[in-house]
């Protein structure tokens, strides 16, 4: 069969369309729906791209990319014009030679096999379209969404909650994420736990293996009323966004899977008055009830599977020869995906929330200064 | 603020639009995208509606509804015509009197508060639009999707894996779900575990409390190649669909949250030849890699929170008086939502898969018999 | 081939999904995106449905339908709730017997032939899904859109500009449409021209033939800034909406086809100051420049083809016998479609404008009175 | 007000998103939905871009652009992969200086005024986003759509039917369009008429004025059954696509506005058997009945308004000074838009038809040669 290609558009009023393959000329995104008048500079985007860039620590792969963003459209005299923003990053460090071996031998745990079955003709170099490099477009668009959100008082925070079996068992304060997460390679909010995570991750990596973990993202300052009933619930859109990130296999809102063992009397967040405002005493719901934000922080957790690329020998099938074989992947890989998933998950949360803010008509461009 | 209403449309080529409130004249759905020529009778839909109907056992609420479906359009001489199917169920057992007390006092854990904040003017009777009664439309549309899937050899199975802390700890075979799940009130695939679940559920209910649990749905016979890269991944669409069900707070694919503690060498499903066909030796991925089906069973788990309606007194705020108060809900409620979520989750999985089958052009109407 | 059915959804933020066949149980629409708090009664909708109802004059077909609308959802205590409105009209006067002859002999000029080729299995009674009866849903939804627009000071006017070769050659004032169009069977703004139209229409009808014409719709009070660049231009959406009405074969904006013979110096509307406001001296552009409203009246003209159903004998093919034959349609038909297209075209214009108003965030629900 | 930007996405299964401004770094398009395996080279796209390029004859503006396309993604070893194609053209000949005068003085007939009212902050250089340069993306994407269509036996033809009051009054054969239209600057299918058109166009231009005209596009070989009922009718999508082209003010299908003066007995295309195939004796309907293709050629006509840029003095308002003024545009402009609209209209027709072919599942990639 020859497969048809759709699926690269996300959002309703703030829409992104990503493009690009790991070893093609470029990766990028077109983002439409950004109101006119938002101050924006390449460095706003570059800052976020630098966070997702590989090769920055022992726990990320060593592919060298500068990942310089170019804004091809939608910007005029330092402000958006309401026209689509095309953000492009040229591929530089691509070296397809190490992938020659996987051209006919799909890697276990990767998209190689279903892509071959679906499309027939596949750009197999470095995973092609299914490569994590596609997230460059997400992070670039997410940076613009963060700017929009920030002008409405919404802040996005992300960190690694668990990696390689090491978890921050206690409650993490927002402040800790802000202060610590970007200061260690694991992006963990607790520096001490970060050290143990890194040890375990590297220990597995030395044995040619990889590890999984849990990433948490939060949104603070989200006004009540975002999200729509039934199918376009805010948590449904968030779950969609998060599960679309490669390697994510579970999405939880608020207490998530812990709700299974709770009683209703524990699970319900009772409603109280605080300084004349109606709010919730606790936030087990993770900021969303009936699919609509209630004004408390939005809390989302993602389970990230172990990096599928490992050096240990793995069984697979040689498609040309039609026989089973053993694959030993060369090169070095991200031993744990969590630190690099953090900025991507933040970007996706920002895109969903900015879209719903725009849909709700609550964006306040007056805060941007100037007429717009 | 006066809220705007969107969000009731789901799907791309097979699209559903649900409508109706708990205590309005009717609930229902318009379903478009069903190809012409599919044999369909009201009883195909009625069978599924009967499964979600309340009042059938000690573990479901006693609201009495016949829930008879009427097909208003899209059917001619026993077959679909390609035109939209409008499926309507008239509300009969509605008794809004018991809800008078919650008109100005939002129930904790329910959508009452965010709806009031978002819309200002709300049909507060029985949860209105946010009521579980909205799922009548989902289940009716899902019944048609199941007919479509069945003509392609795809089977959907659902069961309660855990409730009130009681879990089927061992591997559950497909056969057990088919044989046992519909034969006990908990819809559990293991009759012995079902009994213990029911005990725990009823024990909590007698104390005025409710319990949560885990529902699992599977799809067998799904061909490889369904799903689209990047944002329209099959698992992203499934996560969206499942998280849009009221009470669902976590969605897992395959091993789900267990991936966090695995090594890559455990997590990867190696690729093998079986009878000349390329397949996976294990199915930890839950049938989906890179967002695209690989041909193994699709496995999804949902965490269902405890029913938010409980008889125990709960703090809330009286919006008219602007003061805190205590709410004691009268009446009887579903003590555990899992058994009733099972057919809804099956319907949502069926809708997503039928949509992707139609998108992929793989539907085979020749199996339907007759010219179409 | 067995056709797949899509195409019944229209709009982006204000979305309608129509359903129903000419001789099925009912026709109707689900409308979502209406903000909460809009006062609405069945009579608001009934008034518009009564305008499109057949059997009211010598120039419309005599099928007797009361066309009583029922609101199944989305309304509570006389105001919308933001939830989808399901509006249903039961089919009563359906008499399929007269259509038996066309079951295997497609009528020239109708959708019979392409539907048979596309779907294989078709509800052939009275045109089924392709019947003009489908417009009941459009007019019902349009009535709600008109209510929304009216609260923003937007008025929709429609009239028959030309029928059976008789045309209002002079400029028609808005006032004339308001005062005269609903007072004659042709819905013509000039009573004298209306009489001549009617004569010509009936004269052709007596010979067993039908006639075409031109319908004009206008929107007054549309604020500047509606419409989006490139593909979602306001005039592109209007053209889409109008061309989707059965029998419409041309759509013109402003001077329309007359622009072909103009010079730029005649065609351009120069920009002037009037009472301190920037506006256009003339309105040849029909209220839209670059796809975006400029604040002057929006003017749209539709060419309506002659009713395809005529009594004169016509060649066709008997599909069962596989041979050419001659079809003589019995019964009486609309001798000219223009008067009945007028309320449908108004409805479609209202839906497009209300959608763009909602997209632009310019709706002002404070005018509705009450909190929402 | 600060406007929000949407509207740059078109299509359902074959989706384009254009980006770029007249004087920004680049213009282009991302196209998704192209099946894997389609042979494609930059020259396939370049050929069409060269047709729309300015500066090629006395009747087009002299801006010098090489308009070299770069394919940034979606192509591997000379074939599409099913991933989005990003097609970029760098802006080279941009000279914004001549536009300085229009920064605060909106040009009559242009989008300047509504853009300023909608967005506040506008890239005014050369029309920015509303410039005809945006059509580079449409033509590039259309070239890919033509390749798809061509593999299904569908051919797209376009020509100028009328310009500056000079019209090809007789029936134009397909063959004439193929042979003659690209051989004269007016893109007219009749060389003799072309000469008279050019004379009239240049005569008006010499007086500082511009002229309008009519462009016709046809699609041959379109299979029956494309298009969907009600709102997604093939002619509705075509009308949308065509009216979205700058300068187009009327869209006609088949006999178009001439239907207004026809009788039903003239307007209906009777149904006949030809060589055992059911077809129409005439093609007044322009290949579409009930919104669905019938297998005869699709015929569409567009009225193109005179180029709004003229050298003659025109009244406008100086927005900074808040007073009326007179604008005299310098530079040379396209004296008639028709020749340059031809390839754009062809591209839009190709995009609509390819989208519907993909939606219908009728594409036959086996014709592409190779496995896919």
Explain how this protein is built.
Four copies of one chain form a homotetramer. With 372 residues, the first copy, chain A, is an alpha+beta fold. The first copy, chain A, has one domain: Chorismate synthase, AroC fold, CATH 3.60.150.10. In chain A, 26% of the residues lie in helices and 22% in strands. Chain A has helices at 42-52, 112-119, 135-150, 174-180, 191-206, 234-243, 264-267, 338-360, and strands at residues 9-10, 15-20, 26-32, 69-71, 75-76, 79-80, 85-90, 155-163, 166-167, 213-220, 248-253, 271-274, 277-280, 288-289, 292-293, 298-304, 314-318, 323-327. In chain A, the strands form six sheets. A five-stranded antiparallel beta sheet of chain A has the order 1-2-3-7-4, with helices on one face. The first copy, chain A, has a five-stranded antiparallel beta sheet with strand order 9-8-10-16-11. In chain A, helix 3 crosses helix 8 and helix 6 packs antiparallel against helix 8 (338-360). Chain A is globular and about 70 Å long. The first copy, chain A, starts with 8 loop residues before the first strand and ends in a 12-residue tail after the last helix. In chain A, 68% of the residues are buried. The mean pLDDT of chain A is 92. Chains A and B meet through strand 1, helix 2, helix 6, strand 11 and helix 7 of A and strand 1, helix 2, helix 6, strand 11 and helix 7 of B.
Topology readout:
The structure is a homotetramer of 372-residue chains.
Chain A: E1 9-10, E2 15-20, E3 26-32, H1 42-52, E4 69-71, E5 75-76, E6 79-80, E7 85-90, H2 112-119, H3 135-150, E8 155-163, E9 166-167, H4 174-180, H5 191-206, E10 213-220, H6 234-243, E11 248-253, H7 264-267, E12 271-274, E13 277-280, E14 288-289, E15 292-293, E16 298-304, E17 314-318, E18 323-327, H8 338-360
């Amino acid at each position: 069969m020859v497969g048809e290609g759709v699926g690269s558009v996300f959002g309703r009023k703030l829409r992104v369309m990503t493009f690009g393959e790991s070893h093609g000329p470029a990766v990028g995104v077109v983002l439409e729906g950004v109101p006119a008048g938002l101050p924006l500079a390449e460095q706003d985007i570059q800052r976020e791209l630098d966070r997702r860039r590989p090769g920055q620590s022992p726990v990320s792969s060593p592919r060298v990319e500068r990942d310089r963003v170019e804004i091809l459209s939608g910007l005029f005299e330092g402000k958006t014009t309401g026209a689509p923003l095309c953000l492009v990053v040229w591929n530089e460090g691509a070296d397809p030679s190490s992938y020659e071996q996987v051209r006919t031998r799909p890697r276990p745990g990767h998209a190689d096999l279903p892509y071959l079955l679906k499309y027939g003709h596949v750009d197999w170099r470095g995973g092609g379209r299914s490569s994590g490099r596609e997230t460059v477009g997400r992070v670039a668009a997410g940076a613009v969404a963060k700017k929009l959100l920030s002008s409405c008082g919404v802040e996005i925070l992300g960190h690694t909650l668990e990696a390689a079996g090491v978890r921050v068992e206690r409650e993490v304060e927002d402040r800790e994420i802000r202060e610590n997460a970007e200061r260690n390679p694991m992006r963990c909010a607790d520096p001490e736990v970060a050290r143990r995570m890194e040890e375990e991750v590297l220990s597995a990596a030395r044995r040619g293996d990889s590890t999984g973990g849990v990433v948490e993202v939060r949104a603070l300052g989200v006004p009540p009323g975002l999200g729509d009933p039934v199918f376009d619930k805010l948590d449904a859109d968030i779950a969609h966004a998060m599960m679309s990130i490669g390697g994510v296999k579970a999405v939880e809102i608020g207490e998530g899977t812990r709700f299974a063992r709770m009683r209703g009397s524990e699970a319900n967040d009772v409603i109280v008055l605080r300084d004349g405002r109606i709010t919730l005493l606790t936030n087990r719901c993770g900021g969303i009830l009936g699919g609509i934000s209630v004004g408390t922080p939005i809390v989302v957790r993602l389970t990230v599977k172990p990096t599928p690329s490992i050096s240990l020998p793995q069984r697979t099938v040689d498609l040309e020869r039609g026989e089973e074989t053993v694959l030993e992947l060369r090169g070095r890989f991200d031993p744990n995906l969590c630190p690099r998933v953090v900025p991507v998950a933040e970007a996706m949360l920002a895109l969903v929330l900015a879209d719903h803010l725009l849909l709700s008509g609550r964006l306040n461009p007056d805060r941007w200064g100037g007429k717009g």
